[in-house]
Amino acid sequence: MALPKQLKRFLNHQGQSYEYTLQADTKQSARIQLKVLSAKAKGSPLHSQIQAIDLFPTDVAACVELALNQGWQPELAGQAFKLSPDQLSLKAVQTAPAEANFQLVPVIENLSGELLFSSQLTDADWLSLLADQFAEWLADPQSTEILIQSFVELSPGLSGGFSLLSDKQIFVQPDCCCGLWSVADWEAVLDQDAGEIWTGHGKTVPVSFERGLKTICLKVNRSESVWLSFDDYHLMLAQAHHQLHLLCQRLEPILNQLFQTKIGHQLAQILVFKQLESASALDS
User: Fold this and answer.
1) Mean pLDDT of the chain
2) What is the CA radius of gyration of the chain?
3) Contact, 128 vs 138, CB < 8 A?
4) Which residues pair with 172 in a beta bridge?
5) Quick one: how many helices (H) and strands (E) in the chain?
6) Angle 166-168-170 (CA atoms, 0-180°, nearest 5)?
7) pLDDT tens digits for range 247-260
8) pLDDT at residue 50, rounded to an integer
9) Angle 230-259/264-273 helices, nearest 10 degrees?
């Protein structure tokens, strides 16, 4: 699960927006170069080297929090703020994930409104889906260029989310207004004693913990709950991130073809992880 290229992602932490890049260290395969910038000010960057092959957004948020506490001022221009992550307890992925009893599988809403596992969509399906989604921007070269230059703000994002399944039995399906960015909700509950995972308009999965037994309970419907060990839950999240990386790799040449560009890997990252505007409106 080594990072294929420099990956650009986005993070909201304590009401502030950041953009960050992850890049595999060319001298050591199991080490990541992390760079974080304020999404608005583009001031002093945060730099760190972390022993891992991938990072969860919660890991990056922890690095940001530590750096801010140590005096990093991301809104002010200046030299890079260098952070040692040794003081942090990160959930960073150290090796490629093995198979877990439960899987969190990315699903996409196709042109017919059906939810399909992302792996079920062919390249032709993806091309048709994205061409339909960006039809108004592909009408003329000037509109296409405007979209590419402001892809973060203008891209509509992908409608879908994650299915929780085990032995081909589906326990959780996403509903409308959800997307692949919702993996962050599945992660966030780990830092709480109880909570809910948002899976679409009007739908949540209540979560509770047995800290002493190191287990997590997901109430998947009114009469049924599933229990996972903390290790299995972390493994499930690592698998989900791995599948998102594979999806970004797959979308890169399709986006290059669609937009006649060579920055498909950047566009894929934004498209996969962007929150839908309809979901943002519901949150507010």
Assistant:
1) 80
2) 19
3) no
4) 164
5) 8, 13
6) 70
7) 988 999 999 999 98
8) 78
9) 130
